[in-house]
Fold:
Amino acid sequence: MQKFKDKEGLLRFVINLIIGTICFVILFYLLSSLLSVIFPFYSQQRMQAQGTIDDIYEKTSLLATEANKEILLYAPQGWHLMGFSKEKRGENKIALPPACNEQNCLCICQWGLTTKDCMKNAACKAFEKPFFKEGKDIDMRIAKTVIKVTGKSEFFDVEEIKG
Structure:
């Protein structure tokens, strides 16, 4: 540790320490921004989407026929919850994603200007039964919304509850 003989030396040291800390914070922010551009696959919103899909899977995997479960959808806001069925019963705007491997699948994707934008940044998971809303594959925008999922013999019926 340096001993300071006068107040001017101590003041200079403190100012340099503050400037160094500010530069370090700015450098850290720039580096993290650069890494998020280089590796968008692991973005925070994508991890939120995967967490939401996993939460839906856990809450519906043991859901009995005619039983229902309410699930809060809140993250990532502005993304879309989309269901894909093997039978292609719905009229989704995009084709079955490759990650679904021709299985019933639920995805959360970032909707862009084109359909390819949705599949570039999506979290998907295969399910035994498809998810339908009003008889079609589910397609809904995520906001602070509660959905009620009811187990049916051949599919999950999804109802949006305004909350």
User: Anything to note?
Assistant: The first strand starts at residue 68 and ends at 73. Residues 43-161 form one domain.
